[in-house]
Amino acid sequence: MARIDLIIPVYNEGPKVQGNLEKIAESISHIPDIRFSFIVVDDGSSDQTHNYLQRFLESKPDSQLICLTRNFGKEGALLAGLEQSGGQAVLVMDSDLQHPPELIAKMVNAWQQGLDVVEGYKSSRGKESLGKRFLADTFYSVFEFLAGKNLRNHSDFKLLDRRVVDTYLALPERKRFFRGLIPWMGFAFAQIPFDVPERDNGQSRWSLLKLFRLSVDALTSFTSAPLYLINIMGLICLLLSLVIGGITLYYKFVGLAVSGFTTVILLILLIGSFIMFGLGLIGMYIGQIFAEVKKRPLYIVDERKSKLKKTISAE
Which residues are CB-contacts of 235 (< 8 A; sequence separation ≥ 6)? Predict the structure, then answer.
């Protein structure tokens, strides 16, 4: 019997997390010939989420609870779960039921047919605020333009074969973008569409600021294309300078030159803006290099709260 590990990161989900996990457990209980094991990662919750997770996992002896010492972000939580997994496959999903549990049976069936990656694909994004929808659309458009990969409506709701997980964990980089790296590796995959359901209660923990930071990290860690924008801006700046300089010389030769420093001021502002923007882009990448050089751990496990297996084997 094959084993599939369910990796579920949670953060400040409160009382509803236990009910949500029970619904997930009920959905997978009817799938034949598969033994599921929960690996729940508490990403530094500051409420009572940990207590509700313990209650749920008391009846799941084969499962694990990983508690991080603080909120390290979803990428760190996913990595913590993947490194503790040992099944023939891994299923990554959210705990808030925004990833429909009833889709799991179809994903498992596709994996059993030989596919390495099976992804839940958002046919609709559900109800989102205008700000979040605008930011998401902008990010995916910029990402496709710069990185050459269309991730629009992709999700972290993925079933990964063991060799995909091992390949992902073997990647040397530290700043990771899970949603982009999985398709980048090029394994055989399939997509199963789903409509994002409405939340029964509670609100998304992703604020606009957090989404913006995640977008910047994802873009700068995945592609170096923005660095080349500096060359493009430099060329544009040069062309504009030539045009303005030519106009200024023409007015001088025909005797229409106006005294003052308007043109000079405009040029200084224009050039200064491009320089500052270019330095800002370089600074983003220096920040990424700084994070890589430090080799600081992406997460820290609180062993006193966690329920970890010392040895993990796949049957």
Answer: none
Where residue 311 falls among pLDDT bands split at 50, 70, 90?
A: very low
Give the residue from 45, 20, 22, 25 showing the smallest Cα distance to 36.
Answer: 25
Q: What distances in angstroms separate CA 202 from CA 36, 98, 267, one per listed residue?
A: 27, 12, 51
Q: Global pTM?
A: 0.75
The terminus-to-terminus CA distance of the chain in angstroms comes to: 7
Q: Cβ-count burial of 56 within 10 angstroms (0-12 exposed, 13-18 middle, 19+ buried)? A: buried
Q: Judge contact between 116 and 164, C-beta under 8 A.
A: yes
Q: Is the Cα dihedral 167, 169, 172, 177 positive or negative?
A: positive
> Looking at domain 2-206, what is its CATH homologous superfamily?
Spore Coat Polysaccharide Biosynthesis Protein SpsA; Chain A (3.90.550.10)
